[in-house]
Amino acid sequence: MKQLVIKAFGDADQLELADVPAVALEPGQVRVRMHFAGVNPIDAKTRAGLGWGAEAVKDRLPWSPGFELMGSVAEAAPGVTAFQPGDRVFGMVAGGGYSQQLVVAADSLLPVPAGVSDEMAAGLPLAGATAWQGLTDHGGLKAGERVLISAAAGGVGHLAVQLAKSLGAVVVALTSRANHDFLRQLGADEILDYRDPAAMAALAPVDLLFDLVGGTSGESLLSHVKPDGRVITVPTITAPQVIAAAEARGLRAAGMLRRTDNVQLASLIAMVADGRLKVDISRVFELAEGPAAHRQIETGHTRGKVLLRG
Ligand SMILES: NC(=O)c1ccc[n+]([C@@H]2O[C@H](COP(=O)([O-])OP(=O)(O)OC[C@H]3O[C@@H](n4cnc5c(N)ncnc54)[C@H](OP(=O)(O)O)[C@@H]3O)[C@@H](O)[C@H]2O)c1
């Protein structure tokens, strides 16, 4: 069984395809043959040795990235009744998604509804959870409020635009000019090029800033938040910097760490199934092309989601 691993932190070329022995199933587990695995910035940051992700895995290298996958059940442990071999499943995993096969607890997975593509199911869990939890649990977004979403065309952002619209918010989306049509089709109300100072200066204040870029970009957007507004800054490494700058302006600000919630994920995939939520897949790489997939995500200019094919 092939798995992409790193033996040391470093650049994208640290990712290598290793032969890994298949492990036996324990009670309650299933073996999933991966069809597609999502590639997220956290995978590349952890591979590079940055942030909480690297701190968590530094003592257990080699490590295989990948926190979300979609595949088919190859084998179920005796007593597992939720899934049969051949069933299409998806969900969040604790790393190792970049593997041809992965053994996981059956109750950590959800079925892929008929009519939902393998690719959309693979790209939904991590970005979908982050978008939903950021806007609702952390951001408290209400119908009629104005929300400013930076990196609106990216993995989290393009889902956040659609989810904020579904909540009845007025969505102001920031992206480069090349992605304006893309965001218009997803329902954004106002679309601004963040590199256009005149457009940014004309932006009316917002109730909630959903900052998906962080750092100096996040700081530069604080002047567009109403005096009683809120800020949720999502990139964890720069969160303290953005929160401190927001609080210095008297704004309520917080960071976040997405959590796994399969009740929430079931609601999100139901939205995909009935056409209310679209997961845009801009690039698919073969598993052996892991380094190229990481270089793509590290451009910081990916539209929608990037996947690896098993
Ligand atoms: N805390 C958590 O639990 C959590 C969970 C998920 C993600 N994250 C973090 O959240 C961030 C976003 O994740 P993601 O998966 O959405 O990333 P992504 O898909 O790589 O985001 C790419 C997007 O960023 C846009 N962008 C780049 N610079 C920008 C700027 N200065 N202003 C506005 N947009 C800009 C690009 O748009 P253009 O090409 O149009 O420039 C591109 O569409 C990452 O830092 C990630 O690590 C944190």
Automatic annotation (TrEMBL):
<dbReference type="GO" id="GO:0016491">
    <property type="term" value="F:oxidoreductase activity"/>
</dbReference>
<dbReference type="GO" id="GO:0008270">
    <property type="term" value="F:zinc ion binding"/>
</dbReference>
<protein>
    <submittedName>
        <fullName>NADP-dependent oxidoreductase</fullName>
    </submittedName>
</protein>
<feature type="domain" description="Enoyl reductase (ER)">
    <location>
        <begin position="10"/>
        <end position="308"/>
    </location>
</feature>
<dbReference type="InterPro" id="IPR011032">
    <property type="entry name" value="GroES-like_sf"/>
</dbReference>
<dbReference type="InterPro" id="IPR052733">
    <property type="entry name" value="Chloroplast_QOR"/>
</dbReference>
<dbReference type="InterPro" id="IPR036291">
    <property type="entry name" value="NAD(P)-bd_dom_sf"/>
</dbReference>
<dbReference type="InterPro" id="IPR020843">
    <property type="entry name" value="ER"/>
</dbReference>
<dbReference type="Pfam" id="PF08240">
    <property type="entry name" value="ADH_N"/>
</dbReference>
<dbReference type="Pfam" id="PF13602">
    <property type="entry name" value="ADH_zinc_N_2"/>
</dbReference>
<dbReference type="InterPro" id="IPR002364">
    <property type="entry name" value="Quin_OxRdtase/zeta-crystal_CS"/>
</dbReference>
<dbReference type="InterPro" id="IPR013154">
    <property type="entry name" value="ADH-like_N"/>
</dbReference>
